[in-house]
Amino acid sequence: VQLVESGGGLVQPGGSLRLSCAASGFTFSRFDMNWYRQAPGKERELVGSIDSAGGSTYALDSAKGRFTISRDNAKDMVYLQMNSLKAEDTAVYYCHFQTLWTHYWGQGTQVTVSS
Q1: Best CA proximity match to 9, nearest among 106, 85, 17
Q2: Phi, psi angles (nearest 5°) of residue 63
Q3: Out of 3, 35, 103, 106, which residue is the most buried by the measure of CB atoms under 10 Å away?
């Protein structure tokens, strides 16, 4: 099982980024997928989730209306589109899913929002 995030970087406030997560080693289409983030000195927090059919929910109030989670089951990819980025969105962003027994995490991708 492997989750590989990409697309992070340095962006100015108000800018946009699209994070991608490439999944392999499991039947991607069967699982809900999640995006988490961890800011410096803070606990990891759930950004939002997308179910196997493509329905998304957002755990962070600050993400609602700015972030969009999507997936492509044909490509085994999940995405996090982030718009109107703020300094407080600076964090390492992780792709995640879990089975009954195990949590799987990617290595994370750094997003820095700064002028």
Answers
A1: 17
A2: -85, -25
A3: 35
Nearest residue to 11 via CA among 94, 103, 86: 86
DSSP summary character for residue 110: E
Neighbours of 103 (CB within 10 A): 9
- Does an H or E element contain 82, and which? strand 77-82
- Beta-bridge partners for 105: 96
Q: Amino acid letter at 67?
A: F
Distance of alpha carbon 21 from alpha carbon 103, whole angstroms = 16
Tens-digit pLDDT profile for the chain (115 aa)? 999 999 999 999 999 999 999 999 999 999 999 999 999 999 999 999 999 999 999 999 999 899 999 999 999 999 999 999 999 999 999 999 999 999 999 999 999 999 9
Contacts of 113 (CB under 8 A, 6+ apart): 11, 12, 13, 15, 85, 86, 87, 88, 89, 90
